[in-house]
Amino acid sequence: MNHLSSVKHVIVILSGKGGVGKSTMAVQIALGLHAAGKKIGILDVDLCGPSIPKMFNLESRDIHQCNEGWLPVYVDKDQRIGVMSIGFLLGSADDAVVWRGPKKNAMIKQFLSDVYWQDVDYLIIDTPPGTSDEHITVMESLRGYNPDGAILVTTPQAVAVGDVRRELTFCRKTGIPVVGLVENMSGYVCPHCAECTNIFSKGGGQALAEQTDISFLGSIPIDSNLTLSLDTGVNILEANPRSPAVRAINHIVKKLIALDKDLP
Amino acid sequence: MNHLSSVKHVIVILSGKGGVGKSTMAVQIALGLHAAGKKIGILDVDLCGPSIPKMFNLESRDIHQCNEGWLPVYVDKDQRIGVMSIGFLLGSADDAVVWRGPKKNAMIKQFLSDVYWQDVDYLIIDTPPGTSDEHITVMESLRGYNPDGAILVTTPQAVAVGDVRRELTFCRKTGIPVVGLVENMSGYVCPHCAECTNIFSKGGGQALAEQTDISFLGSIPIDSNLTLSLDTGVNILEANPRSPAVRAINHIVKKLIALDKDLP
């Protein structure tokens, strides 16, 4: 797995619960770090529900092989954001990956060993919900590569926060450091009357971060511009730089860069 | 697995994507069928992220054993809604189930064979996101028990609809019939100005149902009453019978009962 040795930072996006915005965070953090001049790799290990290709509008693209291994699919012409996902290996977007654990583990190990990332500053690993095969395999494979750690994503509801508590136990059991927690879908500003409603409750993420003594990276409001941008593969940071979600994302990315003491 | 032979209907709640409202649907459909006089069992096979106990406010409860097997935990005094979940077997709500596939499969098989449901009309099986171990094991174990089939849940976004297309492929591959599709989080009515916004896009579920020739069961709007009821374990059908989500749920339950030609 020596391709990983040239990667400066590895960040794993985790959440016990599905649909809280892990892939959204992976994409937005990647775009934010890219806008700050960093070179990025994104590895999508959600084998049964790969969303990253669609979110970058890369669905029809193929993976190519070179002498060094598999080449990621690049989002931009300058090849500063590269993506690897099982989505690129499926014949059709409707194909279901009906695999039990051992087959999934083998695929993830191959992704971690064979993809030729080429000196990326940040490798962001997007995971499926849960604390099972995919997660155990990623954590075991990253040992020895000194990953920065995990960013946990939650929504404010008690049900989601409960799942993140379990994910935190998982991080402690598997020995991966926690970079911090992001609360997604925190409040919705009505575009008609500009009043904010906490559709999915409020503050659960921040309270959890305080209780468990982990860093709170920030809250991202519900923003239909963000949903739309991810459905169409548009870079919202460029298309809609003043939207509430973008301001929140930029804030989180700044915190991440501030954590990086190894780079100038 | 002869405890399953006394179950009249088996419905599996599926969605490729997480966080679209599978557990919410499982709970609301159970409550709706219960209000219509049916006896209900709910089996939660989301081993890494069990939400059902919290949604019924049963978190501190324990499973008891009788001569016939494990007794479900009952929601009501009349024992007309029984729940089985790994949540009842964990010491603390923070405990993470860090299990690979084979251990998960063994647990699910035990749930399917050892729980003494006692003549329930409907057994509703809530699943984790994806198309992997848990789903394959459930489908294999249900063969021979003539399950009614799967209810697929999606949100309107393209990303979620894509995952449901894959789940549909899974149903066809494993031979489970599709009862129909529910679109959750379809539009949000602002409580301040009463204007409706399609936060997560609109109509993706209905369009998918038409394209793939499966039954569209209905749309459920975003409703903070519903989120709150599930965080606190309150029965929204009784607490808030006129809320928009409850009207939509009642509509879906009526369709399900209409499908049932075996019962008077």
From TrEMBL, chains A, B:
Cofactor remark: Binds 4 [4Fe-4S] clusters per heterotetramer. Contains two stable clusters in the N-termini of NUBP1 and two labile, bridging clusters between subunits of the NUBP1-NUBP2 heterotetramer.
Keyword hit for Amino-acid biosynthesis: no
Gene Ontology CC terms: axoneme; centriole; cytosol; nucleus
Self-association state and partner proteins as the record states: Heterotetramer of 2 NUBP1 and 2 NUBP2 chains. Interacts with KIFC1. Interacts with NUBP1.
Main location class: cytoplasm
Protein's UniProt name: Cytosolic Fe-S cluster assembly factor NUBP2 homolog
Compartmental location: Cytoplasm, Cytoskeleton, Cilium axoneme; Cytoplasm, Cytoskeleton, Microtubule organizing center, Centrosome, Centriole
Alphabetic keyword roster: 4Fe-4S, ATP-binding, Cytoplasm, Iron, Iron-sulfur, Metal-binding, Nucleotide-binding
One Pfam family per UniProt: ParA
Main function: Component of the cytosolic iron-sulfur (Fe/S) protein assembly (CIA) machinery. Required for maturation of extramitochondrial Fe-S proteins. The NUBP1-NUBP2 heterotetramer forms a Fe-S scaffold complex, mediating the de novo assembly of an Fe-S cluster and its transfer to target apoproteins. Negatively regulates cilium formation and structure.
Highest taxon, organism lineage: Eukaryota
Keyword 4Fe-4S: yes
Sequence positions that bind ATP: 16-23
Cofactor(s) the protein requires to work: [4Fe-4S] cluster
GO molecular function: 4 iron, 4 sulfur cluster binding; ATP binding; ATP-dependent FeS chaperone activity; metal ion binding
GO biological process, one term: iron-sulfur cluster assembly
Residue sites binding [4Fe-4S] cluster per the record: 190, 193
Family membership noted in the UniProt record: Belongs to the Mrp/NBP35 ATP-binding proteins family. NUBP2/CFD1 subfamily.
